[in-house]
Amino acid sequence: LTQGMVLNEIFFRKPDTGRITYYNPGEIELSVDANGKRLGATLKSDGAPVESGGIGTMSKSKNNGVDPQSLIEEYGADTARLFMMFASSPEDTLLWNDAGVEGANRYLRRLWDYCARNEGAIRFQENIARINDWTNVASELRAARAEVHKILQQANFDYSRMQFNTVASAGMKMLNAIEKFPVDVTPLNASTPPKEPLNARWQLINESIGILLRILNPIVPHITHALWKELGFEKQYGEILTAQWPEVDPAALVQDEIELVLQVNGKLRGNMRVAKDADRAQIEQLAMQNANVQKHIAGQPVKKVVVVPGRLVNVVV
Prior knowledge:
The protein is α+β, with helices and mostly antiparallel strands. Helix content is about 40%, strand content about 20%. It has 11 helices and 10 strands. The strands form 3 sheets. Strands 1, 2, 5 and 6 form a 4-stranded mixed sheet that branches. A 4-stranded mixed sheet has the order 8-7-10-9, with helices on one face. A two-stranded antiparallel sheet has the order 3-4. Helix 1 (about 70-75) crosses helix 2. The longest helix is centred in the middle third of the chain and has 22 residues, at about 140-160.
């Protein structure tokens, strides 16, 4: 496995006589117009302009390196690791981007905040019976669990190829999915074991956060270790470094419903869920009953309804 170079912009001044002086990008103030087009660059200390030498490999001689210690002190080591893993595959060059570093930090803050807000609903509780057969669980919960296991399936495949950038991306997608869970995150009463559907909701969020922390751990070990312990997963599975790696549940990927795109005259007007084995007549009927479709056809006669199996429904007026 080869390691790509880390790149950053080079700034300098070249006096009429004397040596070129290079300035670190952190010392530079950029000015842009209303459209974001760069107008110039100046040195913060004196306000005088500097020239750009374009993008080049980080080096001491060009003074365009980033001090890892200052980065760690400001954002933490996990932020630096996540940004570098996410921004580029290991064998490619990486263009340093301060906005990307801040984005990685925002993601980790979101993860921490979500777990802190919903700690009572996520925390492992011994007295709650776990569900092995999700067949009769509400369809919205099964769909949410299916999305998590699909992302896990892709992350495991990417780990096998050492594509850590797409693993980091999978972690971001999984948190997005978890934040949309149709779950009641009220803390459960440990003295009274809950009945369906509350135990299904608890298991969904507990299982999903447990999966997310494990797939992120090789990339951001510090925050995942802390959350794993704080949320009780250590009692449930053992230490995160030795816990069993999450496995995809094949049953979770089997769905009895599919999502179709809804269009009116070829323009996106929403989505709808239908039974996997619904026939054309049932799909057309459901599409015509959809509030968004009714709104956009505005009482006009429908010329035809185009159904592309497994993909979309287009109502033409």
